[in-house]
Structure prediction request, 363 residues.
Amino acid sequence: MEKIILFSFYGRSGMWHYATQYANALSNFKKVYLVCPKYSKKEFIEYNNTSLIEINSNPSIKKFIIETLNICQHIDLFLKILKINPTALHFLDNHPWSILYALIFKLLGYKIIFTQHDPIQHTGEPRGNIQGIINKIQMKLGDYIIIHSEFLKNMVLKKFNISKNKIIIYPHGHYAFLLKYKKDNIREEPYTILFFGRILKYKGLDLLLKSLLILKEEGCKFKLIIAGEGDLKPYKKLINKLKEYIEIHDKYIAEEDIPYYFQKTCLVALTYHDATQSGIIPIAYPFGKPVIVTKVGGLPEVVINGKTGYIVDKNPEEIAKSIKNILYNPSVQDEMKENCKKATYELIDWIENIKKILYIYEG
Prediction:
């Protein structure tokens, strides 16, 4: 059985969720070693065929610099990898250390694989220039580059001078593991919409708020929950016009608290200005929550229009119409909920999709 080393230098939030679920899926077919920070939550990992290699990798800039200069730690990890002698090294994010380790082991003749969640940078994304540089280097170093949609494949081939045979499409898998944190006393609130995750310019909260102003003017009943950390100042005027309709949780949402918001809502809005893919749909589907997404990036590729939600233009009127179609049609809403649960395991199942790309790990 091939031995594969997966690297996840980010140990919290979406990147860590992705790394653990990918490791769980791959371990059904390969012996997996997961390099990860000591501080990361290990409860998401299934240990049937996965071993951990823990390192110090802190998200704070100051500690990151100190740990980057900790040569002893890097030598120790280097020697452990040599001892394992893996068939391939797969870096699941674009952490700066990925370049160091990939370059060394590429020179030693090992197969190198990268997953790029955002090969094209988002509008207003912090540290976008640094991530862009790392992406370019990964594109050159990798034997294979995994991305999450056909849209991204086309974008990458236009932007980077690399062979199309290097690009592997693997849809972002579901986060059904979060269902274990559901609380029996939380009930869905009628006419409730959820905007979830980091609040950044590209995520289009302004588009959603403008669409809700239309519903307000029409006298519609609704409630918006905004849950996630970020800067709400650019949206202050719009929020003030809707303050009696909005519930705000401006904070980092821990894993055990995520189900609370998805249990309470009727639909999830992803009214993005631009996008690559999203880790929000993989949460919404297992909870049976329809989604409204704009026609950007790879989002439309994981939404069955009219079945698991609606795919709309970046137009407040069209967004408002789609919201009404779900909130005020119980039969449509109920059918979409069941379709979302089915899509979890038919469209974005980790194991079924990983079977299609196992050849990249062969010696």
User: Anything to note?
Assistant: The CA atoms of residues 295 and 313 lie 6 Å apart. The radius of gyration is 21 Å.
